Amino acid sequence: MCLAESGFSPRFCAYPHYNIRPLLKIMSDKDLAYYMALPYTLVIKEITDETGHYYFGSYLELDGCQSHGDTMAELVESIKEAKEDWLSVKLEFGDPIPEPVSGPDERYSGKFNLRLPKSLHRQLSETADLEGVSLNQYILFRLSQ
């Protein structure tokens, strides 16, 4: 099966020897029920502004998937519908759908880069040397205080 026969744009049929059946099988295994069951990160904010008091919810991984409700129960129901609609449209058009990270700590490696003035770098390094510890250990100690 070439790409055009699968419903994709005919311009891709320049490679008729490329068998996309395995790719379509993988994609078809991930249906709406599959994505609805995934543990996406739901962020809920209680808001009081000039329009009144309400709850606003959005999924971190699903860009633009958001809703609101006057009560928490209304929000939970409406955000579930919004998620289902958002996923259905992505599936219908074959757009990529991000999956949630496995756990809350998987987004954090324990490392980050930090730019600082040379004078501060020197001061921290010298103090770490005086304490007899590495620069990393000293900075970790100072940050944890």
Main traits of this protein?
single chain, 145 residues, alpha+beta, 5 helices, 41% helix, disordered N terminus
Q: How are the SSEs ordered, and which strands pair?
A:
Layout (H helix, E strand, L loop, with lengths): L20 H9 L2 H5 L5 E8 L2 E8 L6 E4 L2 H22 L24 H14 L3 H10 L1
Task: Describe the protein in words.
This protein has 145 residues and is an alpha+beta fold. It has 3 domains: 1-30, no CATH class; 32-102, Double Stranded RNA Binding Domain, CATH 3.30.160.250; 110-144, no CATH class. The chain is built from 5 helices and 3 strands. It has a 3-stranded antiparallel sheet. Helix 4 packs across helix 5. The radius of gyration is 25 Å and the shape is elongated. Mean pLDDT is 82; it is low at 1-6, 8-15 and 20-26.
Overall SS class: alpha+beta
Question: What's the total count of β strands?
Answer: 3
- Helical fraction: 40-55%
| Structure annotation, total helices | 5
Distance between the termini: 62 Å
Query: What is the fold-level CATH name, i.e. the topology of the largest domain?
Result: Double Stranded RNA Binding Domain
Radius of gyration: 25 Å
| The level-1 CATH class of the largest domain | Alpha Beta
Portion in beta strands: 5-15%
Most strands sheet? 3 strands, antiparallel
The backbone outline, from C-alpha atoms, is: elongated
The ordered string of helix (H) and strand (E) elements is: HHEEEHHH
Mean model confidence by pLDDT: 82
If strands are numbered along the chain, what order do they take across the biggest sheet?
1-2-3
Q: What's the number of structural domains?
A: 3
What would CATH call the architecture of the largest domain? 2-Layer Sandwich
Uncertain segments are: 1-6, 8-15, 20-26
